[in-house]
Design a protein that fits this description.
Pfam families: TIL (PF01826)
Keywords: Disulfide bond, Protease inhibitor, Signal
Structural class: alpha+beta
Helix content: 25-40%
GO molecular function: peptidase inhibitor activity
InterPro entries: Ser_inhib-like_sf (IPR036084), SerProtInhib-TIL_Domain (IPR051368), TIL_dom (IPR002919)
Number of domains: 1
CATH superfamily: Laminin
Order of helices and strands: HEEEE
Largest sheet: 2 strands, antiparallel
Shape: flat
Protein name: TIL domain-containing protein
Amino acid sequence: MKFTGSVLLLFIAGITASPLATRGGKCPKNEVWSDCGSACPEYCGQPPDTMCIAMCQSGCFCKSGYIRSKANGGTCIRPSQCPK
């Protein structure tokens, strides 16, 4: 039981610390830091009129004119670069 609790605590600490580490550093190419970015960023192949919760998240987000190459992350690319 102690092991499970320790693993859970380390997991939560990692999630909490990760935005702080990124904030002080650099975001990847074509991304910028935001304290309140979309919880549902646009991505290649995204269905039209996708519902999204109205919560903001801090982290690195695609610059204006760029979208994610995949639904679950990926690099920021221009929409014209999305696979057809």
